[in-house]
Write a structure and sequence with these properties.
Helix content: 25-40%
Number of domains: 2
InterPro entries: Enolpyruvate_Tfrase_dom, Enolpyruvate_Tfrase_sf, EPSP_synthase_CS, RNA3'P_cycl/enolpyr_Trfase_a/b
Enzyme class: transferase
Strand content: 15-25%
CATH architecture of the largest domain: Alpha-beta prism
Number of helices: 10
Pfam families: EPSP_synthase
Keywords: Transferase
CATH topology of the largest domain: UDP-n-acetylglucosamine1-carboxyvinyl-transferase, Chain
Largest sheet: 4 strands, mixed
EC number: 2.5.1.19
Length: 350
């Protein structure tokens, strides 16, 4: 998400180049929607390939246009980046969304924060046309920023899957579907009490109930909740989630490939992930690939904690993208986690 926000802001800077050390995850993600929208504003952009991969160069003389269009079918982040561009521009900006906004709650978060900072943003009743006022001035304010949504969902789902009593600080419902994730966990059997607005207590240990989830409400939570659903009795359908195919990995097909190795039965459609849970857990003893994706690595960890034999996750350090302390913190909760050094060969079977 940070890349797409910065790409928007860079439309008002003289010369910026974006590169990445994560060439097999972030480096493969298409940025064509943002590149095309910036070009419509007379901003010079160059990228790699027809899908506009990193590295990406953006150059601007600040003489940008007043109208652009963007597709948000794959991600609402493109729109958020353009709203930030409009916030710093000298002229009014009209942004038209040409299709569906996959995660409107995240756009509302962007708009609310910009308005708090003094930026005038308006939109139509259909939430398709957005207008920012030029020559705006930012007002110094204080902002409370929640933890990464995928990381928060991963911890909550892990706690809900085990016999646990955990207090979580730094939690903001707005970033997890305004209650959608918490309600999913409660309906699944977890007991959750808010101590204050940014702090909750989660207790679990009983049977997990299968249920469906609208992934457009909290896209980053889908892998974590699907991992939890792997231990429910029955069928859980995660729908409206085509856009999570375009994250750090294909979080539907890539995730299913690893779940299949573990023995989790699942199906997929273009915009759905279907999990058939097994409350008795899984045999384990296999090696799975995290696909350079922090969200999948944390979700696979939750599944691994319910396996009879150890689960090995390749290159787990990619959780460092958002949650470097993830494995050390779940160890304090009782998880049995061991790091295999690169000097030690990974066994072909365990």
């Amino acid at each position: 998400m940070v890349l797409r926000l910065l790409m928007g802001v860079s439309g008002y800077l003289p010369d910026v180049e974006f590169i990445t050390d994560y060439s097999y995850s972030l480096g493969t993600r298409s940025q064509s929607e943002m590149v095309n929208a910036l070009k419509l504003l007379n901003i010079q952009c160059t990228a790699v390939g027809p899908d506009s991969h990193l590295p990406i160069s953006i150059k601007s003389n600040r003489n940008i246009g007043s109208y652009t269009e963007v597709s948000c079918r794959k991600s609402s982040q493109f729109l958020s980046g353009l709203l930030y561009l409009g916030a710093i521009s000298e002229q009014d900006l009209h942004i038209k969304v040409t299709d569906t906004i996959t995660a409107p709650s995240m756009v509302h978060t962007t708009i609310n924060n910009l308005r708090k900072a003094g930026i005038n943003i308006e939109y139509d009743d259909e939430f398709r046309h957005f207008f920012t006022t030029g020559n705006s001035r930012f007002i110094a304010s204080e902002f409370n920023v929640g933890a990464d949504p995928a990381s928060t969902a991963a911890i909550l789902a892990l706690c809900a899957s085990l016999n646990s009593d955990v207090t979580l600080n730094g939690f903001f419902e707005e970033e997890l579907g305004n209650g959608a994730v918490v309600n999913y966990l409660i309906n699944g059997g977890a007991k959750i009490n808010f101590i204050r607005e940014d702090c909750l207590n989660i207790r679990s240990g009983g049977a997990i109930k299968a249920q469906d989830f609208d992934g457009s409400l909290a896209p980053d939570a889908v892998p974590a909740l699907a991992a939890l659903a792997a231990f429910a009795e029955g069928k859980s359908v995660f729908y409206n989630i085509e856009h999570i195919r375009y994250k750090e990995s294909d979080r539907i097909s890539d995730f299913r490939r690893e779940l299949d190795k573990i023995g989790v039965r699942s199906e997929e459609k273009l915009d759905q992930l279907i999990i058939y849970g097994n409350p008795y857990g899984y045999k384990g003893g296999v090696i799975v690939d995290g696909h350079y994706d922090h969200g999948l690595i944390m979700a696979l960890t939750t599944v691994g904690l319910h396996c009879d034999a150890p689960l090995i996750i390749r290159e787990p350090y990619h959780v460092g993208q958002t949650y470097p302390e993830y494995f050390s913190e779940i160890s304090t909760l009782g998880a049995n986690v061991n790091e295999l050094k690169y000097s030690s060969p990974i066994p072909e079977d365990i």
